[in-house]
Amino acid sequence: MTIKEIQEEIVDEFSMFEDWDERFQYVIDLGKGLPLIEEKYKTEENTIKGCQSKVWVHAEQKDGKIIFTADSDAIITKGIIAVLVRAFSNHSPAEILEADTQFIDEIGLKDHLSPTRANGLVSMIKQIKMYALAFQAKQ
């Protein structure tokens, strides 16, 4: 699946819920299914700056694709990073860099987060793009 197809799938899933209480519960459930980062990668270097909660993201490149793992000490934040990992993991650096993040606006996530969580979301996206940029530069 392309990043765009995954993003459309996420938008469809969120549209099934009536209200934001149900959507936040879904975000929490997504966080519970997140492929967790290994403890050895829970370092300052892998911490997302600008997040209210602790969020760690690790990236590895295998066969030209970037694999992201992540974790957070907060349940909502863990769900948010799970959405991003799902959308961007297992794609090439170029695909990640070219992808837009309009789907975040389409599901209304940013509008329903506190200002500090919304800033954290932007920081998570920035970090994912930075990893893609770094891997692309190595090629």
Automatic annotation (TrEMBL):
Q: Please name the InterPro entries in this protein's record.
A: Fe-S_metab-assoc_dom
Q: Which domain of life is it from?
A: Bacteria
Q: Which residues form the Fe-S metabolism associated domain?
A: 11-130
What is a single Pfam family found in this protein's UniProt entry? SufE
Do you know which PANTHER family this protein is assigned to? Answer: SUFE-LIKE PROTEIN 2, CHLOROPLASTIC (PTHR43597:SF5), SULFUR ACCEPTOR PROTEIN CSDE (PTHR43597)
Assigned protein family: Belongs to the SufE family.
The name on file for this protein is: SufE family protein
